[in-house]
């Protein structure tokens, strides 16, 4: 009983702490954003909590809606209005996130919405435009009914609320979703250097466009287009995740600069300035993410095409073309290191009988069983390939013929221990470079002769057995 009670407490405590962390993040972001509110204390033109709420429900599940509701209620209770109006605003914020989560999961591939252009556009429609109207309507109507907002300002406050939430969904939600899926970049040293150059360049150009640097020279010119090449750079050279980070970086610098009167969006009204900026950032984020998704999809297709060009479609092993390339690479490596390598050729015995007795589907599965054994028997530096039909090859780097023979016996033993029907056996030939051949053709030919030497005793035994019968 004590153990069950402990497990129950652990299962209850973990989601409680996760919900508390999500709610705390929401409150902190909301309080910072409300410092920008000018048309009404509860309506900010800059509202990242919408993105936080949507991402929380997409990643953790809709069951965490109470955390969003409680956080939104606390924020509004300590800002303006009464407990009743705060409940209404919290209900709108929570319903906004739940609706966006449901529609995105149902129609836009959920948390993977930013992998494809179609899903990005649907996410923008459902999470950035439609669901955000719910929070704006609930919030402004509640404040007006409670006497905390003038009815003649309804349209101005509603527009501010809606655009602020839309920017939070379109700018911050992609960043949080993409980086939560892959938080640690897997870049090469060259990519790290390029990322550093991109970061410094983005900071510099954003400081010029939205900061005091050269403000007198550029304040009356539409210099915002200078940020676009860096977003394209991030999207083309890296992907949606890095592009979303650059968008957020540019957005943060732009908001701070616009508040202080710098940049092309600075107007006499701070609220109008930020609304204009957020509209620009939302459209820029959407187009950049669409471009990044298209580039990433193109790269995936090219990678798939490359794999199909060098991989056997049935087994997934290297095909003959890649086999020849790997043997050629090993020959060149021998010229540098002087260490020999070996090639095994393997032939599945009796494949025709298997096809005749069990059918071609079982025959194909038998080929795949041999391929799986080869995959398990080689190192990362080795290459297993389908040589053709029922024949396979294994290129063993820095391996002598004696060591290759040990590997061959291990492969045969693993296959013989496979209890699946029909039972399989293989014949194996071994050739060592440069002892058995100094070119690719001679080496494969030597391995082929060795293979048939291994098959000949079995063939004689089988023939003798047939005569006796």
Overall description:
This protein is mainly alpha-helical and 469 residues long. It folds into three domains: 181 residues, Arp2/3 complex 21 kDa subunit ARPC3 (Orthogonal Bundle), CATH 1.10.1760; 127 residues; 149 residues, 2-Layer Sandwich (Alpha-Beta Plaits). 70% of the residues lie in helices and 6% in strands. Strand 2 and strand 3 form a beta hairpin. Helix 14 crosses helix 15. The longest helix is centred in the middle third of the chain and has 41 residues. The radius of gyration is 33 Å and the shape is elongated. The termini are far apart.
Q: In terms of structural class, how would the helical and strand content be classed?
A: mainly alpha
Reported CATH architecture of the largest domain: Orthogonal Bundle
Distance separating the two termini: 70 Å
* The CATH topology of the largest domain: Arp2/3 complex 21 kDa subunit ARPC3
Protein traits:
70% helix, 16 helices, elongated, 469 residues, disordered C terminus, mainly alpha, Alpha-Beta Plaits, Arp2/3 complex 21 kDa subunit ARPC3
Put the structure in a nutshell.
The chain is mainly alpha-helical and 469 residues long. It has helices at 2-34, 49-60, 65-77, 83-107, 117-145, 154-181, 189-210, 215-218, 228-237, 240-259, 270-310, 320-337, 351-358, 360-377, 401-416, 440-468; strands at residues 341-348, 383-388, 391-396, 426-433. The protein is elongated and about 100 Å long.
